[in-house]
Amino acid sequence: MNLLQSTECRWLSRERVVTRPFELRVELLLVFKGNDKASFSDFLGDTKCLLKLAYLAYIYWHLNTLNTLFHDPKENILTSSNKTVALFKNIFSWLYFSRK
């Protein structure tokens, strides 16, 4: 069974590239183990790699939310810059605490 044939391809846009594999990690692990794809199944079975994938999914979700907010007709440069600065402060603090 080909995984791409059994799923919709439109989820490959925007942040879904990272979040969808994280959501389907159990199913993907079963498929990769069944097809003898050891490198992929090892990645999805490793807790540290899953944490990195979850972290990336979370960041992409925030970036997509921020991008959606920018399209609001009431949005201006001041509120946009405040939201952007707040997001990047959060990202840098997450990076700082993830290295500890």
What gap, in angstroms, lies between the N and C termini? 42 Å
Approximate strand percentage: under 5%
Number of strands: 0
Provide the structure class.
mainly alpha
What does this structure look like?
- By secondary structure, this protein is an all-alpha fold.
- It is built from 6 helices and no strands.
- It has one domain.
- 76% of the residues lie in helices and 0% in strands.
- The longest helix has 24 residues.
Structure, briefly:
With 100 residues, the protein is mainly α. 76% of the residues lie in helices and 0% in strands.
Give the helices and strands, then pairings.
Elements: H1 3-6, H2 16-23, H3 25-34, H4 38-45, H5 47-70, H6 77-98
Helix pairs in contact: 2-5, 3-4, 5-6
List keywords for this structure.
100 residues, single chain, 6 helices, mainly alpha
